[in-house]
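LAB NOTEBOOK - FOLDING QUEUE
OPERATOR: T.R.
BATCH SIZE: 2
PURPOSE: Compare the predicted structure-token outputs for two unrelated chains run back to back under identical settings.
PRIORITY: normal
REVIEWER: second-year student, initials M.K.

ITEM 1
FIELD SEQUENCE / FIELD STRUCTURE:
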Amino acid sequence: MKRWTVSLLLFVLLLANAVRAEKAPSLWLNEPAPGFTLENAEGKKVSLSQFKGKNPVIVAFWHPQMDLSVQQLKELNKVLKDKAFKDVKVLAVTFGKEVKDRDASREAFKKAGLKFPLLFEKRTDASAAPVEYLVNSLPSFYIIDKKGNLAAPPLAFVSETVNGKSFAGFLKDVLAGKPVSACDFAPPARDDEPYKKLFDMIGKKAPDFSAVDTSGVKQSLSYYKGKRNVLLVFFYPGCPHCRRELPLLGGYDTKWAAKQKVQLMAVNIDGSDAAQAESIKFFKLFGMSFPLINQGKNPINELYDVHSVPTAFFIDKKGNVRHVFVGEFAMPGDVIRCLADKMN
């Protein structure tokens, strides 16, 4: 498949998820995975719940016109030949409202020699997943344990490792009842320009700033020194990646931040009047209550050398940068929760 076509499908996927996300979704490790009932290739209904208490399940979201999707499903097929995984079930989910979409999926499976149950979600765009699974790229593989709980963040590659551990390694941990650490899924440091200078800040003092948030409260980094760790997130409201990631961080703020003594702050780097109004509307839409700073003519992002969003800095109680996150990443609430445990 041509590269530009793949890019277009991924763009549609990102846009569709951004448009659909009118309600902040909730997806947490070691909690029940979102249920679904879909039609298989024979027109019969298959529910995730029917495997609860019986089998671990891998839910694979894929696209028949993406070579990478089919390739990784073939890699999964190889992994599951290990006798240790004989009880693991796979549900391969793609969109298939139109007959041509279903036929394309069947043909791709036949050509690749795949025999996983093929399920169709009735969509006509590239978003081949229930929104509850927060799929932002294809393919995406979710491991669900026998209890029906989400046991690992989504993995895009069966053939690659995450922090030195293979897909098979994660799957074996799940089968053994060993919790998967969300810390393993924190995005790695980057050494390419212009991002290298951001990661060079790790271990150094974070630049202080003072600004008034949209509630009229004066905010400064130094205020929280000795009191709380701070997650400082830079965004702008027109960024689709930000519109998905910030509500998830809002979920962390509601559920875990106070317990872990973590203070979230968001900085809108777009100083236009329209963007400032939109950022307030965006926060209200998702019920996010942590401080929002419209930086306006006070360029806080320049203090941190931030020129792309979302970008976040996890700063400890001493005021030192401990982690840097560039771009959107999977299940940020769980990753922050895990890292915060290690910082406290």
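ITEM 2
FIELD SEQUENCE / FIELD STRUCTURE:
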Amino acid sequence: MTTANKITVLRILLVPFFVVEIIYYVRTGNESYRLAGLLAFAVASILDGVDGYVARRYNQRSELGTILDPLADKLLLVSAIVILSFDNAPRLGQIPLWLTGAIIGRDVMLAIGAVVVRLVVGSITVRPRLTGKVATVFQMVMVVWILLRWDVPFHGTWLKVWILGSGLFTVASGWFYIWDGMHQLSKHPASTAKVE
């Protein structure tokens, strides 16, 4: 196992720690739990860049890494978004359920689409899109904003901006990935009608 993959595994192991700390904070109000959860989220987010850098710099790209890295990203963000979708008042702000549904729905559709393309075409080409990266940034900032409790002094005004941006870029990135998948399917001979 490469160093980059070990860093990615550490990111995955930080997810349950983050979840437990936030749940304890919501139940008890003990600030040390919130800070520990925030630290776990921040470290896992920073390590996302570190493992990518290590993989590129030391030529440690691997097939396992191509599976683990996006898995670690999704586990961290989806677990944070789901936990913050519950009514955690008065301790933490809340992410609207429509946004949680949009994020999870997009990821489920993309996973199903990837399986279909792989079964029909035999391989899949995933092109990272700017909209997907911007959606991830908006989602991470939104989570950190809530964990830092900055929505309280600003009366949720900026949180609404992050929520709206997350929603718009999540939906846009989903459409672009669906478009790419349909394009790959349409170019494959198995998807064209045979004329006899």
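REVIEWER COMMENT (ITEM 2): Residues 33 and 113 are 38 Å apart (CA to CA).
FOLLOW-UP: none requested
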